[in-house]
Design goal:
Elements lengths: L3 E5 L6 E5 L10 E6 L5 E6 L7 E11 L2 E10 L3 E6 L11 E8 L2 E12 L4 E5 L7 H20 L1
Antiparallel strand pairs: 1-2, 3-4, 5-6, 5-8, 6-7, 7-10, 8-9, 9-10
Length: 155
């Protein structure tokens, strides 16, 4: 939103913040070449996301076909999450609908998700359409937003 992008070097974990305003109106994928101070030369793909995505490590559960299974959430946004199934990896397919449950600051969040990406090790899921009339859905959305905004200030 502020025309700035954060990049993390995969070799040394150095973080740089780059002004990307020149690409704001571009409809095509943007590829940026960068040489880190550690010497690693990288080609970066500039990705536009509607919502801020926070890297996290939170345990939770997902329900698939009536079976409750453990997961570790690796990132979270207002639109969805990425998680790693703990057991039975590979059972989840693109298009599956799951229920997920996890705690944010001692508040249990229960959401339905639609699987957008699925590999052997990770699942990317989008929260299903929200019921804006539901006080519970509103409370979950507010809690997720609060957590992300608070966490963003701390990073």
């Amino acid at each position: 939103n502020n025309n700035m992008a954060k990049f993390v070097c995969p070799k040394c974990q150095d973080r740089i913040i780059m002004n990307v305003s020149e690409y704001k109106e571009t409809d095509k994928a943007v590829v940026i070449e960068h040489e880190c101070k550690c010497g690693l030369y990288s080609t970066l793909l500039l990705e536009r996301r509607q919502f801020y995505r926070k890297d996290i490590c939170i345990s939770g559960t997902y329900i698939l076909g009536g079976d409750r299974r453990s997961m570790v959430i690796r990132n979270l946004s207002r639109a969805g999450l990425k998680f790693e199934p703990v057991l039975k990896k590979g059972d989840i397919k693109i298009g599956d609908k799951l229920a997920v449950e996890f705690f944010l600051d001692n508040v249990l969040i229960k959401k339905k998700v639609f699987v957008k990406t699925a590999t052997e090790d990770a699942v990317g899921a989008e929260f299903c359409s929200r019921n804006f009339e539901s006080a519970t859905d509103q409370a979950y959305d507010k809690m997720i937003t609060y957590y992300l905004l608070r966490s963003k200030d701390e990073s």
